[in-house]
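Our preliminary data section would be incomplete without showing what the modeling component actually yields. Below, a chain of 483 amino acids is followed by its predicted structure, encoded as tokens that our downstream tools consume directly.
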Amino acid sequence: MTTAIVWFRQDLRLQDNPALEAALQSDQLVIPIYIVEPEKRDWPVGAASKWWLHHSLSALQQSLRHRGSDLLVFAGNAERVLMQLCRSTAARHVFWNRCYEPDAIERDSNIKNSLLEIAVNVYSFNGSLLAEPWNTLKKDGTPYRVFTPFWKAIQQNGITLFCFTPPKHFPAISDKLKNSNTIKITELNLLPSNRWDMGLTETWQPGEMSARKYIHNFLDATIMQYPDGRDIPGISGTSRLSPYLHFGEISPWEIWRSIQVWSTTHTDSGAIKAAECYLRQLGWRDFAYQLLYYFPHTDTQPLDTRFTAFPWKSRYKKELQRWQQGMTGIPIVDAGMRELWYSGWMHNRVRMIVASLLSKNLLIPWQQGAQWFWDTLVDADLANNTMGWQWTAGCGADAAPFFRIFNPVRQGERFDPDGRYVRRWVPELQALPDKWIHQPWEAPQQVLEQAEVVLGKTYPEPMVDLAQSRQRALAIWNDLKSS
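Predicted structure:
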């Protein structure tokens, strides 16, 4: 009996899994495994991501068991685990879907070479992107640094929608193999001991089946309003598929196909616009991966090298803590940071607002914000997190860099005009009229008293003057350009 190992990583699904399909076609016995490796030095798995990973692994294991197989979980160095497992099972093939983070690329290359030395062949596949980074380059062979031409190139090259439906029955794995150096998912200690995760539990249900429910609900109830609704944080205007995409519980191809099917019965111009608008977001995801692939230093260093000399603050502990805790005194910023802490997610429009305040009004290094998002987001993704923070800080791939400074008051008035979002996450301001909900410091004293708001006591005074700090940031930028 020929044996193959399928190493699951950021592809925790059975549907549309190229590595899994190839293994099932190649060998008689297929052993699905997951390896929890020692923590990385720079980007150890964040607390919210650990929570999601626990439940995602459990869902995948249950799905495999329903089909007569299992997910074998190991802890330790991935190369050693794979080498030992290949020797003990006489496996001659290892299949995996590619990861694109710098550390993962180096790890996978080393493992592949080691396995080849013991006559084990490795087969890797694209399991997560519409187009791999090296397949979408400019005519001169260099990577794109602006999104629009990148997206046009992907569409012109054509998108191949991989499709695979897993069989109902998988090859059975012996009990001896299941008990050989494997550990239970509960023994990984991915869940927090003090149970701060109740908000995550109320908000999310990880797993492949849940991802499919999200895309169906999005198409049934939300997508028609997506072009405008995606900017309104107080409503359900987005798909909320980002964590499912990050952990590979759903493929971009399944999303694309689902929208194509929906489009066959929704052919008016509004539906076409909505579909194109959403699919464009999948393009942004690919763009983030290309940037990280070709500029691997940008997880901690600016893409725009001029910003290596930017005079960020060096002492900011208390200010950073107020931002993290949602106590800046600026309502829409505080709402976003509290939503993040409770649910492990933040609306994308609000992500830009809170990031702009931190990096431009407070002059705190964007890397500090990226680290906080990495630990608290359930969709923490190195490529997308890096691109988002560099874009907002003005030092990344952007045609309109640093001088774009979001005014949180104007943003709140435009995208949360009735204060629904702020009132949900900042309940101490619930009784304020819409006119003042985004700038309570400007409200007449009588209005504050009627709303039972005491600035500095029941709700903080704003920690920074928005107008003055904006001018300060622009002055620094002008000095940086001239030098």
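The chain has three domains: 1-127, 128-161+209-293, 305-482. The radius of gyration is 24 Å. Preliminary results of this kind motivate Aim 1 of the renewal.
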